[in-house]
Amino acid sequence: MKQETLAARAHVTVDVLDKWERDILQPDTDRSALLCHALGTTMSYLLDFRGEVRRQNLPADAHRIGRLYNEADAHTRAIVELALLPIEKEKKPRVVPLPKPKEEIAEEIAPDMTSLKTYTQPSAAGLGNYLDDDSYDIIEYPNVPARADIAVRISGDSMEPKFFDGDIVFVETESVLDDGEIGIFFYNGQGYLKKIRKNPGRLVSLNPRYEDIILRDGMGFRVVGRVVGVAEQ
To answer: Consecutive sets of 10 residues in the chain, 233 residues long: mean pLDDT of each?
Structure first.
């Protein structure tokens, strides 16, 4: 490449370029970037893993630019590399992703499904219904909490606004619940979705229209489990 051509591409005079070549002056970072572009190389290519100039198959101007880069401080090197990023991006091939098979797309969209025993006889969020241990279906649900063991259909409105008539709740089977927890309970032969209070022992509704159910001895009270979620509708 002629000196006049390189000087024009670097936006300097031939005299200035001559002084660069004879180490009388040194180019600033912007001019160094323009020189690399004109010579068809980058600062990264000029340096190997030891930070030294690659000697093979490069013109003298490229060696000189590499030497100047080696002598620059870290801040100056970072500026030069930043200036050359658009040039390096232009040289990278454009990768167009192939469309995925329909089977893979379906697997990505489909949520995780879990099969649970679902008790078809509702547990009342109201006045109470009998919950038969043998009256259930096996139903698959998406996004089931890991702790869920069974599912129970709810009837009534005593636990609104948190639970509604017809909801299916996920239950972690447990024989003891802490004060204030919401669960499924047997009492006097019927099933309930309620909040438990222990002093005194009672089952509490969230809907203020319903009175508490006082737990009395000899009435067959049992905890079925803790409510850990609601099935998606």
So the answer is: 74 77 70 70 50 49 69 71 60 54 49 82 50 74 91 89 91 92 88 91 93 91 92 84
Is residue 42 a contact partner of residue 87, using CB atoms and an 8 Å limit? yes
- Find out whether the peptide bond into 161 is cis, omega within 30 degrees of 0: yes
Q: Give 226's Cβ-side CA count (13 Å radius).
A: 14
Dig out the tokens for 3 from the structure. 């000196």
Ramachandran bin of 229, using left for φ above 0, alpha for ψ from -120 to 50, beta for the remaining angles: left
3 touches 23 (CB < 8 A) = no
Distances (CA, A) of 84 to 49, 79, 89, 91: 19, 9, 9, 11
Which amino acid is located at 198 in the chain?
A: K
DSSP conformational letter for 83: H
Residue 24 falls in which region: left (phi positive, over 0), alpha (psi -120 to 50) or beta: alpha
pTM over 0.90: no
d(CA 2, CA 212): 97
Contact 219, 187 (CB under 8 A): yes
| DSSP notation for 141-210 | EES--TT--EEEEEESSTTTTTS-TT-EEEEEE-S---TT-EEEEEETTEEEEEEEEETTEEEE-SSTTS
Measure the CA–CA gap between 22 and 9, rounded to whole angstroms: 19
